[in-house]
């Protein structure tokens, strides 16, 4: 079974600064997907970024980028130029390579607060 | 607009009652999922369906039931057998045959047992 660990329950950052959220996972699979989702106070889950394990290049999406270290089973999220609207709970999630089941395994989340 | 809708947004249930949560999508996605979220925790999978008239149990299926009679709809019934049903419920869908398996989520339903 896969497990996802987010060791930082809460973090804060000043507006316009950069922050990195940590995520580690445990799996015996070689091919899989990793995701970061954000959940603002509205509680809508919103996809932030996605990484395929077979890709060596780290995914980027505007101000969001990841540092994917496959050997270390680490998948951190970097948010640059933090904005007040980035305040949310951030979840790291794992999915095995598509097969009979495509379920996501989530970490427990990191509450990020962007301070003005 | 394409998307996933869930209704109602808030639901109150008396102990011993069954309630059904609605999830509809117009994204033409094959796969649909139900997750439960408790305070301070991540999401846990209840049931999923990859095709019409077929569904599988997730990690915490006890006390829940689902149906998938239409591609667009995947209702979840919380039965009286679910001992602690108060939680936030999220529905998701994904394009099973597409280039990605990214799951997209609805706005959620908050269920409270009185």
Task: Give a structural overview.
- The complex is a heterodimer of chains A (116) and B (114).
- Chain A is globular.
- With 116 residues, chain A is mainly β.
- The mean pLDDT of chain A is 93.
- In chain A, strands 2, 5, 6, 10, 11 and 12 form a 6-stranded mixed beta sheet that branches.
- In chain A, a hairpin with a 4-residue loop joins strand 8 (64-69) and strand 9.
- The N and C termini of chain A lie far apart (41 Å).
- Chain A is built from no helices and 12 strands.
- With 114 residues, chain B is mostly beta strands.
- Chain B contains no helices and 11 strands.
- In chain B, strands 2, 4, 5, 6, 9, 10 and 11 form a 7-stranded mixed beta sheet that branches. A 4-stranded antiparallel beta sheet of chain B has the order 1-3-8-7, with no helix packed on it.
- The mean pLDDT of chain B is 91.
- Classes of the chains: A mainly beta (116), B mainly beta (114).
- Chain A binds chain B through residues 4, 9, 33, 35, 37, 42-47, 50, 91, 93, 95, 98, 101-104, 106-109, and chain B through 31, 33, 40-45, 48, 50, 56, 58-59, 88, 90, 92, 94, 96, 100-108.
Characterize this entry briefly.
The complex is a heterodimer of chains A (116) and B (114). With 116 residues, chain A is mostly beta strands.
List the helices and strands and how they pair.
The complex is a heterodimer of chains A (116) and B (114).
Chain A: E1 3-5, E2 10-14, E3 19-21, E4 24-26, E5 32-39, E6 46-52, E7 60-61, E8 64-69, E9 74-79, E10 88-96, E11 104-106, E12 110-115
Parallel strand pairs in A: 2-12
Antiparallel strand pairs in A: 1-4, 3-9, 5-6, 5-10, 7-8, 8-9, 10-11, 10-12
Chain B: E1 4-7, E2 10-13, E3 19-25, E4 31-37, E5 43-51, E6 54-57, E7 64-66, E8 76-78, E9 87-94, E10 104-105, E11 109-113
Parallel strand pairs in B: 2-11
Antiparallel strand pairs in B: 1-3, 3-8, 4-5, 4-9, 5-6, 7-8, 9-10, 9-11
């Amino acid at each position: 079974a896969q497990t996802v660990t987010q060791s930082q329950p809460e973090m804060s950052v000043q507006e316009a600064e950069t922050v990195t959220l940590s995520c580690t996972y445990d799996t015996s699979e070689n091919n899989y997907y990793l995701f970061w989702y954000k959940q603002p106070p509205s509680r809508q889950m919103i996809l932030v970024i996605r990484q395929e394990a077979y890709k060596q290049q780290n995914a980027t999406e505007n101000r969001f980028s990841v540092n994917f270290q496959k050997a270390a089973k680490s998948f951190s999220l970097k948010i640059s130029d933090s904005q007040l609207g980035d305040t949310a709970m951030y979840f790291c999630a794992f999915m095995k390579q598509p097969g009979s089941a495509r379920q996501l395994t989530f970490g427990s989340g990191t509450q990020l607060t962007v301070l003005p | 607009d394409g998307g996933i809708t869930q209704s109602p947004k808030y639901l109150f249930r008396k102990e011993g009652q069954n309630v059904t949560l609605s999830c509809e999508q117009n994204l033409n996605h094959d796969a649909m999922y139900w997750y439960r979220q408790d305070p301070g925790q991540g999401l846990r999978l209840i049931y999923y369906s990859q095709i019409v008239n077929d569904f599988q149990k997730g990690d915490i299926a006890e006390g829940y039931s689902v149906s998938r009679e239409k591609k667009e709809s995947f209702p979840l019934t919380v039965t009286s057998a679910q001992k602690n049903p108060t939680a936030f419920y999220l529905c998701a869908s994904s394009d099973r045959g597409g280039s990605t398996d990214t799951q997209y989520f609805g706005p959620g339903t908050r269920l409270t047992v009185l």
